[in-house]
Amino acid sequence: MTAPAHTIAAAENRTTADIVAAHTRDARGILDEGSKREIRRATLAAVCVPGYQVPFGSREMPVARGWGSGGLQVTLGLLGADDAVKVIDQGDDDGVNATNLRRLIVDSEGSEQTQDTRECTVVQSRHRIPEEPLADGQTLVLQVPVAEPLRGVEKSVRECARMHAEADYSMMWVSLYEDLVRNGVVTKTTGYPVLVDGRYVMVTTPIPRWDVPRLHGAANLTLFGAGREKRIFAVPPHTDVAPLTFDDVPFEVEGVSGQCCVRCGSADTFLVEASGGALACSDVEWCTRVRDGDADLTRHHACAPLRFLPDPSARVRVTVADVRERRDPGTRSVPVVADGWTLAARGLGKIHGPGDERAVVGTGPAAGTAISPLTGAVVAAWDVDFDVAPGEALGVIGESGSGKSTVLRCLVGEERATTGAMYLAGVDAGQRDVFGLDDASRRALRIDTIGLVHQNPADGLTMPVSAGGNIAERLTAAGWRNYHEIRDRAAWLLEQVEVPLDRMDDPVRTFSGGMRQRVQIAKALATDPGVLLLDEPTTGLDASVAAGVLDLLRTLLAERDTAAVVVSHDFAVIEALTDRSLVMNVGRVVETGLTDQLFQDPHHPYTQRLVAAARR
Description:
single chain; Rossmann fold; 7-stranded mixed beta sheet
């Protein structure tokens, strides 16, 4: 049986806008009109921004658990009396859920129903895209149990929103990296992440990997409805959909070449286990039509993702021994210099609280307080001025509350400076004030231009992820997409910081404090940043462990052309690592000079007290 000619012609002539507009007629039934308007608005927005999760407002659906309220709400919000709906559940039109949902939809909206994919205008599906290739004018609605692709790697809803806004998907790549490390292949089935229209990473739950390539360039409109999160996202017709995969690790679908359906003999369909352990088509309608001779086998075969079937010969599991033989650190780039410096801070100031420059009066070392007597604001740092040359390490020393950590946070972008400027030689040849960049641009600088080593390694590492995976996070954020190159780079860096390669694939939460700090240093250096910022790098470590970390840092800084800023309250750390230093007290710089001279012949009384305390 084939679809009537007028049905096919009408479907082919409908645009996406026509689909959404036509479905607004004759709205009635289980969803109130207000809810339907919300769904239609969200649908139009989702079509305009492919892959973006659009929130919608609607009451909870009075349906059984497992019926997929998100997909049902989308279907009810779009259907009109002129539509024909097909409902499938796990490939079956006649299952209990499919039958009851179809009855509810038809009774509520007065639309037609059909089990023939070619005759419907709307398909509501659970777990599958129909084997029959969908056409222009048709809409596929999928029920989504989990809408947020980042949920597995980030628990904060706010942080997930930021990551989407900035296209910061490095942790998605890390999850694939870790899967490959553990299993040699990517084991994720339903919910495989895809990049839609070159912009948003989208989850493909509930469909299997087999159906993922069929989203790319499809003629139909695909809508994903998540009831729990009240989100709708869309793949409009003829949209690019690319599965996330490393350049050297091919994307694979389920199945093995040569397998066929026990009922109809199809070897180009998604197969599931049937009775007796045999394999059968997941899509019951297609299987039946093939047996009845009512299927366009040539068209279907052309759309089947057979080129993505697994090729075991192309799989390469890289062991630690392989990495040790293969690693290639490559060559480091020549540091960018502007007027002899890589980093320059000019008049940096930070005030917490009300007031501007007026708050500075009556504060500082002479007054003995950082609290403004005029406004009550805290002048954490003021008029801090320095620059750092390539290969030079500058120390910033002072007691707690002196303002040194505030300076570092302003440099790295964790706090906004109240006044002053910061210049990086690698940003517009040192002519652009980095403090004027927005937060997203500042974060981007932390990927390839600035490396940061936190006092607490847990602040700079993802603790459940392996040592290699933490380095992979920074590399993938910088655009690396070759799995083997990432492995080689991570191994080389870990060896540089004296982390045993047999621990490369262990979660860093199993490491000691000193080992974690070494991994954090390797991660900070992964992209060869021009500037390295170190915040109390040995605080909290045992004396012997701290000495080892200092030796490591001293060696790395001597070998590299990186400009480093070391913040510490410990003169021993500053003396071991830095060439020049500035001493801060109550938010002001009270003395500057060569580190050994400051230590041997301090002039300011505050510096003298620090040195005396360090010598005890």
